[in-house]
Amino acid sequence: MADRASDYPPPFDPRAFVAEPTDPADERIEVGVLIVGAGPAGLACAIRLGQLLEEHPDVAERLGEVPVAIVEKGKQPGSHLLSGAVVNPRALRRLFKGTNIRLEDMPSYGPVHEEAVYVLTKGKALRIPPPPPMRNHGNWIFSLSQLGRWLAERAEEAGAMVLPETSAEKLLVAHGRVAGIRTGDKGRNRDGEPMGNYEPGSDLVAKVTVLAEGTQGHLTGVALDRFGLRGEEPQVWELGVKEVWRVPKAPRGVIHTMGWPLRTSAKYREFGGSFVYPMGDDMLTIGMVVGLDYRDVELSAHDLLQELKTHPKIAKLLAGGERIGWGAKTIPSGGWYSLPNRLHAPGLLLAGDGVGMVNVPRLKGVHYAIESGRLAAESAFAALRRGQTPSTALQSYDDAVRSSFIAQDLYEVRDMRQVFGRGFFMGGALASAMTVSKGRLALGKMRAEPDAEQPLLRSDRAASYPAPDGKLTFDKLSSVFASGNKTRDDQPNHIRIERHVPNDVAEMWVNLCPAQVYEIGAEDGDGTVTVNVAPSNCVQCGAITAKGGRLTPPEGGSGPEYTLT
């Protein structure tokens, strides 16, 4: 019988990350609204709150010295942000409606001028008309890390306090209501013992807490379990690995590919594709996205990207160029039925990628994150006004999301990801039919099978991966260096996995990880092997959480330092 990663769950109990406030009342940090995560959702929430508080100074005065605070685990806003990113600008326009800020004022690479879609075989590229979901007329090209830093500046101008290098470790719950978070300790050694620079975590208490942590959000997962919020179907993920290149001449338009180097047979469950987006005249970003419900233990998204770059069509785009950035991140792809059954709990709102607001066929999620952050701000503000019933006000967030373009779009593509479990060609045909019908083609709700439950198989997949040459193709460790990773070698391990597993599970984890975190150690003598972990390599992509482990927050300020992704 085939091994499954789900048969070897990690030593992780979400209840251990829920606690009552423990700091004395006079030592707690009190804020009005606490936002966890300085990504598009969290920053949009802070900006909109600033707009509302400026219009209602009486509410701002009652919220004290810090009406809005944003906790960010990276060294600065943008440090951990990575995306395509071709962005639908409608949510940005709504966020800044009535202000003097226009799209042209934002740090972008301009609108999409043209696009091309290719079906690849090993040596050839067949250009096809862009399927409706891949049409990007009217969308703009951004570096998400650059956009995040710019939005953080706008949030601070609006009165928010940004707390960088601060991990959110525990969800504070008192009398059944979320009261804030406890930040992680700093200055512990590998064994968890305090060092000379030790700083204990603090209780940050708030009237409303907004979790906008992004994909695989730690406290979001804890809250879903604590308050029974999980959706009808489990969440599933994809893994994106991308590089930024400086090239003699960037392509004029955006390029998407499908087919090779992924295999089309249904038994492998290999789903995904690639993208190439211009970043001005002399830079481009290239990425490979792979569904994490694959079965082959030798599949590696990082190495698939290296293989993709050897294709004549792609290699020509990179000729004479230099890789200047690299990163990896998971993408929630369960869709409509994997959304939480509620997006709020007492004192709590959930927004953005953390709850799965991503339109997989359109490769879009940034504008949903921004819109959900804006709507969360309006509900949080309503809960803070005199005479309001907080629970009713927070319920208004669910109502607003369900009546927004977020829900409309996600419902139309509700089974798009699941149909590709039937193979590339059958999945493509069904997805096209659903797109043309705008979701009116009803196939019956299709179950989302958890990524870690897929039975593992083995082929000689790795034999086709190219050897790294340091010019066109690269190994994993040099890629981690290119991410600007700043994790201390001696900090505590933030990765939870079962350390003694069958060889197939261990090898799957080794190949899965784009940052070479896992290594197969000694045989245990009982049919299992020991898995060794190098947590300082981790770029916090979240893939291990999808495939049988659990990522928890590392020390604040560690991880990648993305600047162009």
- Through-space gap between termini: 41 Å
CATH homology-level superfamily of the domain at 28-99 and 146-188 and 195-231 and 339-412: FAD/NAD(P)-binding domain
* CATH fold type of the domain at 28-99 and 146-188 and 195-231 and 339-412: FAD/NAD(P)-binding domain
Instruction: Give the name of the CATH architecture of the domain at 28-99 and 146-188 and 195-231 and 339-412.
Output: 3-Layer(bba) Sandwich
Helix vs. strand class: alpha+beta
Number of strands: 26
Largest sheet, if any? 9 strands, mixed
How many helices?
14
Average pLDDT number = 94
Q: How large, in whole angstroms, is the Cα Rg?
A: 23 Å
Indicate the percent of residues in helices. 10-25%
What proportion of the residues form beta strands (DSSP E)? 15-25%
Low-confidence stretches: none
Inertia-based shape: globular
CATH class of the domain at 28-99 and 146-188 and 195-231 and 339-412: Alpha Beta
How would you describe this structure in keywords?
seven-stranded mixed β-sheet, nine-stranded mixed β-sheet, 14 helices, D-Amino Acid Oxidase, Chain A, domain 2, 25% helix, FAD/NAD(P)-binding domain, alpha+beta, 565 residues
Describe this structure in words.
It is a single chain. The chain is an alpha+beta fold and 565 residues long. It contains 14 helices and 26 strands. The strands form six sheets. Strands 1, 2, 3, 9, 10, 11, 14, 20 and 21 form a nine-stranded mixed β-sheet that branches. A seven-stranded mixed β-sheet has the order 7-6-16-17-18-15-19. A three-stranded antiparallel β-sheet has the order 4-8-5. A hairpin with a 2-residue loop joins β20 and β21. The two termini are 41 Å apart.
